[in-house]
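Q: Can I borrow your eye for a moment on a structure tokenisation matter? Would you mind producing a protein record, from residues through to fold? Write it directly below this note and I will take it from there.
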Amino acid sequence: MRASHLAFALPDVDEAEITAITEVIRSGWVTTGPVAQRFEDEFGKFVGAAQAVAVNSGTAAMHLALEAVGLKEGDEVITTPYTFAATAEVIRYFNAKPVFVDVDRVTLNMDPGRIEAAVTAKTRAILPVHIAGQPADMDPILEVAARHKLPVIEDAAHAFPARYKGRMIGSYGGDLACFSFYATKTITTGEGGMVTTANAEWADRCRVMRLHGISKDAWKRYTAEGSWYYEIVAPGFKYNLTDIAAAMGLAQLAKATRMWQRRVDISRRYGEAFGYLPELQIPEVMPWAGHAWQLYILRLNLDRLKISRGQFIEELRTRRIGSSVHFIPLHIHPYYRERYGYEPGDFPVAYGEYQRVVSLPIYSKMTDQDVEDVVDAVVDIVNAFRR
């Protein structure tokens, strides 16, 4: 038994972030400015993207991406029900319709084989999600999109620094990728996000719309080279990332590879410990995937256990191990159930897998002892409650 509770997730920050943020504060320029622009440049280089636009959340990134491709009221966007609220809610911002397709049983990502049947005359885009950091199978998704001339917008909130067939998510082939730098992510700015794309026109549109629809370089209005004059070209949003947050992002980016490698090491230890237990199913990494390990989603073979998933989580809690569930499928939440009339069985794979998943702690700040405490707790629960 641990002496204290192990948090499900914690950011990995040190003096580098404190120094970077302090320098920005002392500079006197704390909102969006040159540091945010440098963060865009460095992040774009890291993932291999021609254009990168920093914003204040992953949700904002997806909202701007959909606006850039011209989503309108009454349009449809094909996506997955097995995701966080933001993926579908940004579609509803336009009074457009999220059209769900079920997931692949192994990866929990959107099943590419189900997409074609969901395309209608109203379909405007495809929005795959890279669940837990394992990339969706992009090639067949891109093939469907090409046949129907649809842009592909990737929800890459979990996918830094994931790879698909050797190339980083953010540069493989989707039209726009949307990253999150929330506190639990591999790199964090506290709150923040990024849109990457090869399309300069879409990137420019995201830049304009992230700051009130002001025509260009709005942040320069108060610099020596700026001008008081500006023009509003569209009713934009307040989605800009501050230099304070960007300074933290640059410090995090500098150690991103090390932090990701630690997650890989933890996932490997979990696999070694749990892979031989018939009561458990460990994540399977696809041969074409470079997994980011944003989450470690363990699945319980409940027919081999005397307890439910909820009881399993409670047993972890009594052993002072934090855990979570990713995700409660969107189609069973009240809003989507009531608006579209969904039943749990409409997406049977998503619903069935949800009922047996538990996310374990996996983050770079964990010590070896933390990892062993998780292993010991899980194995102890299995031994105590196996049939």
Notes: The first helix runs from residue 15 to 27. Residues 15-254 form a domain with the Aspartate Aminotransferase; domain 2 fold (CATH 3.40.640.10).
